[in-house]
């Protein structure tokens, strides 16, 4: 009797093992490592690269950006300007889409999400500055009322995530988490979107698991499970790939590209990224917070010119970036509308002339100031800052390097607490207006959210605002050129270079380099 | 002269002369301490002076001329063009300063609290020793990280970089005082039962004087042993904190910061950026540790 019982159990166990093996064969797991984790699961709280990349797998947008830069349908199947009213955009929505909790996706969710993304604590509100309101015409049609003709508005929607309105109301999540104020909210660890994957488990800064959502409207991707691991240390991240602990490393340090290319079983793909790396300084305040002198030296155009002459972009490119960057002087990537080869050209550094300018400005003895720098966000960010500290030292500016994690660095800029900082900026709408709205326009209302330089010019602000409603594209481009001309003359930014991306994966895992560095794991294929 | 001769004939000196390990360790430790103290005169360049660096010197291998500038460096340069030899000398200076200062701080704090706990006894003694017990149940590096994080919260952002070194000393000191307090309390309890203390009490010597003048010198032996080993631990704790990126700023690297910078280049072939600072840290910590071991053996009556 006992014997019989034992053998039955063995058979049962064996059956279970077989069943497990079968699912393991169908499920393709991709182990994905990055330098940093998503800052939050709230889809409207942080307009930041790694956060958006992660959230695109859980949440979906109305439109998506193809690799060639064009817009493609996602949750919206079609979009048009109302033929009777040029200030209204109409979106036709995809039918038969459900959220991960089974709720149906309808126009109400879009109206709710648009309401949510425009609230004060949202970091994306600048992209919707021209929206007056939205209404659901029926379950699958939304009308968005703009404050004027806004021909380019859909370009701003590639990172506009749609959240389940019922779920948000049930959990008191109608307002985006205020990240810069350090707020903790339900949406920080929980998500409810329509995306191809659902959040199976999340341990911030350690490991997140995403499972394919069976009820997703699109074809089933080859990758059905994603294990996402943030690994801050460069060497550790690469060691994880070399030892087979992860399949795909998104942020490959420039110093390791050559070594990985020579390693058998690893494929490295490189390509230009839609992202600039630049320094900015507070040029608008009366006094600086950390400077050794009274007043604000950065307000003096001579000091700014001296700093520009001190920066040796080629040395940074050759040594710090090992050739993996595209130096330039205009703070916008070459494939974005408004880029100008002439403005992007830069001369050789001239520390001697810079010292003369410093003396002329009354800072012959120099001054000291804090330089805030992230150490886990951009390629070799801390090393770039360190190199510039040395170059500034040669013209008498003693910069104290304060380098810290991006979760501490970014709030300094958004809360206007930094005198001098390094920042990177990607341009998802591929248009200069995005740069102006966030970085150049005075900090007021929905605009200027990342303008830590306190640069403010009402005339320029008016020009920036006109871009949103200008329908004559030629006149619009002329205004963009005018704005860039002034931004360059006033030296609002100290541009360093455009980033070059490198992805590395084990052979057999195919990932294309995405210029926005927003790869979707639904596009990954296995050999 | 007489005193020197007496020292030469003492037990400790005899034991030192007959322990090759102690001699080698002492030579290495003293040599490194001297090199660190006189770094500004020995080092070929000042790596903490950013203006003197040339970025194009970066990644020069040891002993070979740089491809762009033609400069040669004995131990090579790091990613910023800093001479590794100079950086090690200056870095060891910071590491040693933090090490000594935090040991002294922990020692003063631990001895005072240990004496207090033993002398007062009662609820004061219980309170001090329970705090020590609770703290012992956490790894000291964790406590240092905690103190470091809290202290940074109090310091205005502009002064954090200058204050970083003092915060390091404070956090390592506060995480290590327990060892001293426990040993001193135990030894003091033993001494308090001895006749000379009883006698001092009877003739009415002030309690503070009894503790400081009569008891303290008799409990200093074990404290010195802990302090020597504690110095090695403090240097490693500083290196660990800096390695984790919470220590001194990268523009003024200590040995730990240098190792953190160097390990980024482990896979790309620039081994010297990691190797030399790591070897310097190893030599320093090992020699101090061996000296501590030797001192313990000499001062431990049971081993004789």
From TrEMBL, chain A:
<feature type="domain" description="Solute-binding protein family 5">
    <location>
        <begin position="71"/>
        <end position="445"/>
    </location>
</feature>
<keyword id="KW-0732">Signal</keyword>
<dbReference type="Pfam" id="PF00496">
    <property type="entry name" value="SBP_bac_5"/>
</dbReference>
<dbReference type="InterPro" id="IPR030678">
    <property type="entry name" value="Peptide/Ni-bd"/>
</dbReference>
<dbReference type="InterPro" id="IPR039424">
    <property type="entry name" value="SBP_5"/>
</dbReference>
<protein>
    <submittedName>
        <fullName>ABC transporter substrate-binding protein</fullName>
    </submittedName>
</protein>
<dbReference type="GO" id="GO:0043190">
    <property type="term" value="C:ATP-binding cassette (ABC) transporter complex"/>
</dbReference>
<comment type="similarity">
    <text>Belongs to the bacterial solute-binding protein 5 family.</text>
</comment>
<dbReference type="GO" id="GO:0015833">
    <property type="term" value="P:peptide transport"/>
</dbReference>
<feature type="signal peptide">
    <location>
        <begin position="1"/>
        <end position="27"/>
    </location>
</feature>
<dbReference type="InterPro" id="IPR000914">
    <property type="entry name" value="SBP_5_dom"/>
</dbReference>
<dbReference type="GO" id="GO:0030288">
    <property type="term" value="C:outer membrane-bounded periplasmic space"/>
</dbReference>
<dbReference type="GO" id="GO:1904680">
    <property type="term" value="F:peptide transmembrane transporter activity"/>
</dbReference>
<keyword id="KW-0813">Transport</keyword>
UniProtKB/TrEMBL annotation, chain B:
<dbReference type="InterPro" id="IPR050366">
    <property type="entry name" value="BP-dependent_transpt_permease"/>
</dbReference>
<keyword id="KW-1133">Transmembrane helix</keyword>
<protein>
    <submittedName>
        <fullName>ABC transporter permease</fullName>
    </submittedName>
</protein>
<feature type="transmembrane region" description="Helical">
    <location>
        <begin position="94"/>
        <end position="119"/>
    </location>
</feature>
<keyword id="KW-0813">Transport</keyword>
<dbReference type="GO" id="GO:0005886">
    <property type="term" value="C:plasma membrane"/>
</dbReference>
<keyword id="KW-0812">Transmembrane</keyword>
<dbReference type="InterPro" id="IPR000515">
    <property type="entry name" value="MetI-like"/>
</dbReference>
<dbReference type="InterPro" id="IPR035906">
    <property type="entry name" value="MetI-like_sf"/>
</dbReference>
<dbReference type="GO" id="GO:0055085">
    <property type="term" value="P:transmembrane transport"/>
</dbReference>
<keyword id="KW-0472">Membrane</keyword>
<dbReference type="InterPro" id="IPR025966">
    <property type="entry name" value="OppC_N"/>
</dbReference>
<dbReference type="Pfam" id="PF00528">
    <property type="entry name" value="BPD_transp_1"/>
</dbReference>
<dbReference type="Pfam" id="PF12911">
    <property type="entry name" value="OppC_N"/>
</dbReference>
<feature type="transmembrane region" description="Helical">
    <location>
        <begin position="163"/>
        <end position="184"/>
    </location>
</feature>
<feature type="transmembrane region" description="Helical">
    <location>
        <begin position="271"/>
        <end position="295"/>
    </location>
</feature>
<feature type="transmembrane region" description="Helical">
    <location>
        <begin position="131"/>
        <end position="151"/>
    </location>
</feature>
<feature type="transmembrane region" description="Helical">
    <location>
        <begin position="21"/>
        <end position="43"/>
    </location>
</feature>
<feature type="transmembrane region" description="Helical">
    <location>
        <begin position="223"/>
        <end position="246"/>
    </location>
</feature>
<feature type="domain" description="ABC transmembrane type-1">
    <location>
        <begin position="92"/>
        <end position="292"/>
    </location>
</feature>
<comment type="similarity">
    <text>Belongs to the binding-protein-dependent transport system permease family.</text>
</comment>
<keyword id="KW-1003">Cell membrane</keyword>
């Amino acid at each position: 009797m006992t014997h019989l019982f034992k053998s039955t159990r063995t058979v049962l166990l064996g059956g279970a093992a077989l069943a497990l093996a079968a699912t393991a064969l169908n499920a393709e797991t991709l182990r994905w490592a990055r330098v940093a984790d998503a800052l939050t699961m709230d889809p409207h709280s942080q307009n930041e690269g790694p956060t958006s990349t992660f959230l695109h797998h859980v949440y979906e947008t109305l439109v998506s950006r193809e690799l060639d830069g064009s817009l493609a349908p996602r949750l919206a199947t079609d979009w048009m300007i109302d033929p009777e009213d040029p200030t209204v955009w109409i979106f036709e929505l995809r039918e038969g889409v459900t959220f991960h909790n089974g709720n149906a996706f309808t126009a109400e969710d879009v109206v709710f999400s648009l309401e949510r993304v425009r609230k004060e604590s949202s970091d994306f509100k600048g992209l919707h500055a021209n929206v007056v309101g939205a209404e659901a015409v029926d379950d699958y049609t939304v009308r968005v009322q703009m404050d004027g003709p806004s021909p380019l508005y859909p370009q701003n929607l590639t990172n506009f995530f749609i959240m389940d309105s019922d779920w948000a109301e049930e959990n008191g999540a109608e307002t985006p988490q205020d990240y810069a104020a350090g707020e903790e909210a339900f949406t920080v660890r929980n998500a409810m979107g329509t995306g191809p994957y659902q959040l199976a488990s999340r341990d911030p800064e350690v490991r997140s698991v995403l499972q394919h959502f069976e009820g997703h409207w699109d074809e089933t991707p080859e990758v059905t499970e994603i294990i996402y691991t943030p690994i801050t240390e460069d060497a550790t991240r690469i060691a994880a790939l070399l030892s087979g602990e992860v399949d795909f490393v998104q942020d490959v340090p420039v110093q390791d590209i050559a070594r990985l290319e020579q390693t058998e079983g690893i494929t490295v793909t490189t390509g230009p990224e839609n992202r600039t790396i630049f320094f900015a300084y507070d040029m608008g305040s009366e006094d600086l917070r950390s400077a050794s002198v009274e007043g604000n030296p950065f307000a003096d155009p001579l000091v700014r010119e001296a700093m520009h002459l001190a920066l040796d972009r080629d040395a940074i490119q050759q040594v710090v970036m090992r050739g993996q960057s595209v130096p330039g002087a205009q703070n916008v990537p070459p494939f974005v509308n408004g880029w100008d080869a002439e403005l992007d050209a830069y001369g050789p550094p001239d520390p001697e002339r810079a010292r003369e300018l410093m003396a002329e400005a009354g800072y012959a003895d120099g001054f000291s100031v804090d330089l805030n720098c992230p150490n886990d966000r951009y390629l070799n960010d801390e090393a770039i800052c360190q190199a510039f500290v040395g170059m500034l030292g040669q013209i008498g500016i003693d910069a104290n390097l304060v380098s810290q994690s991006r979760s501490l660095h970014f709030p300094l800029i958004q809360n206007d607490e930094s005198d001098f900082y390094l920042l990177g900026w990607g341009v998802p709408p591929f248009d200069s207006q995005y740069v102006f709205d966030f970085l150049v326009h005075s900090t007021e209302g929905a605009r200027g959210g990342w303008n830590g330089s306190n640069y403010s010019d009402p005339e320029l602000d008016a020009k920036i605002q006109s871009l949103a409603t200008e329908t004559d594209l030629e006149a619009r481009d002329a205004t963009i050129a005018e704005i860039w001309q002034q931004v360059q003359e006033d030296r609002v930014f100290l541009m360093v270079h455009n980033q070059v991306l490198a992805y590395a994966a084990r052979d057999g895992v195919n990932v294309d380099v995405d210029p926005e560095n927003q790869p979707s794991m639904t596009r990954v294929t296995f050999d | 002269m007489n005193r020197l001769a007496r020292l030469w004939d003492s037990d400790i000196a005899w034991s030192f002369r007959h322990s090759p390990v102690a001699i080698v360790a002492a030579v290495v430790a003293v040599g490194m301490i001297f090199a660190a103290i006189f770094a500004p005169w020995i080092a070929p360049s000042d790596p903490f002076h950013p203006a003197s660096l040339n970025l194009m010197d970066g990644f020069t291998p040891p002993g070979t001329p740089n491809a762009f500038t033609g400069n040669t460096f004995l131990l090579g340069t790091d990613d910023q063009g800093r001479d590794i030899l100079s950086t090690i000398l200056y870095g060891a200076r910071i590491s040693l300063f933090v090490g000594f200062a935090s040991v002294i701080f922990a020692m003063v704090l631990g001895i005072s609290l240990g004496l207090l706990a033993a002398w007062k006894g009662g609820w004061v003694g219980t309170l001090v020793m329970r705090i020590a017990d609770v703290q012992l149940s956490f790894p000291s590096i964790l406590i240092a990280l905690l103190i470091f994080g809290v202290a940074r919260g109090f310091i205005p952002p502009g002064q954090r970089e200058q204050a970083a070194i003092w915060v390091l000393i404070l956090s390592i000191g506060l995480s290590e005082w327990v060892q001293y307090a426990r040993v001193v309390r135990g030894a003091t309890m033993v001494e308090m039962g001895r006749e000379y203390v009883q006698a001092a009490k009877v003739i009415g010597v002030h309690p503070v004087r009894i503790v400081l003048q009569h008891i303290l010198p008799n409990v200093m032996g074990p404290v010195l042993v802990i302090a020597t080993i504690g110095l090695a631990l403090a240097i490693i704790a500083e290196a660990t904190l800096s390695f984790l990126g919470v220590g001194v700023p990268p523009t003024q690297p200590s040995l730990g910061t240098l190792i953190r910078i160097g390990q980024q280049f482990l896979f790309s072939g620039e081994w010297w950026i990691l190797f030399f600072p790591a070897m310097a840290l190893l030599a320093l910590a090992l020699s101090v540790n061996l000296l501590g071991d030797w001192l313990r053996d000499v001062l431990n009556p049971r081993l004789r």
